[in-house]
Amino acid sequence: MNRTLIASVLAATALVPAAASAQSFDGPYVGVQAGWNHDVAIQDDRDAAVAGVFTGYDKQVTPNIVLGVEGGFSIAAEDRIGPSGNNAARIDPLHSFDLSARAGYVVGENNLLYVRGGYQNSRARYTTTVANVTSSDLRTLDGWFVGGGAERKLTDNISARLEYRYADLGQENAKFERHQVLAGVSYRF
Question: Closest Cα to residue 134, out of 97, 89, 165?
């Protein structure tokens, strides 16, 4: 009888589809990030600390492929670029918004290698000094960015990531490029 009962249980479990396993990188998330900014503009460059927040949504479309969208906001400290003094121009990026799509590949169950690309908007103060007269105005810089990184699940809901980004925010033949290395932590719902 025990053999019949065991055979019946095994046959029944073979006919019932397996319960869906938890998707490692699936659903909405929010997070914080910090890192390094390297801005290049007006024949000058500047390194600065940067910090921000992000939110997004991922869909694990196959066991190894993840597609997602993400939006973020960041502020850098001490990132004014350009010389001071007479006949000089300076740019001071105030804050940035970005919106991007990402595609990733799951390695193991807890690691995601991904690439991303999207739109970036930066608000900046331009200051010019000509003949000892200084003027300043706010400008909006629109551009694009690309990057890639790695994300690792630490728990069911918490993951950490490391990412590199390159952005081109130049306008009207004016060069403005940004390189970033960001470390982040996110919470998945």
Answer: 89
Distance from C-alpha of 153 to C-alpha of 185, rounded to nearest angstrom? 10
Segments in the chain forming alpha helices (H): 2-15
Q: What are phi and psi of 87, to 5 degrees?
A: 55, 45
Annotated domain spans of the chain = 23-188
Assigned fold of 23-188:
Porin (2.40.160)
For residue 179, what are its two tokens?
């390189």
Give the whole-angstrom CA distance, residue 45 versus residue 43: 7
Q: Which two tokens stand for residue 150?
A: 């790695």
**What's this model's pTM, rounded to 2 decimal places?**
0.79
Q: For each of the chain's 189 residues, which pLDDT tens digit applies? A: 445 444 443 444 343 333 334 458 999 999 999 999 998 887 788 898 999 999 999 999 999 999 999 999 999 887 777 766 777 777 788 899 999 999 999 998 899 999 999 999 998 888 888 877 888 888 888 999 999 999 999 999 999 999 999 999 887 767 889 999 999 999 999
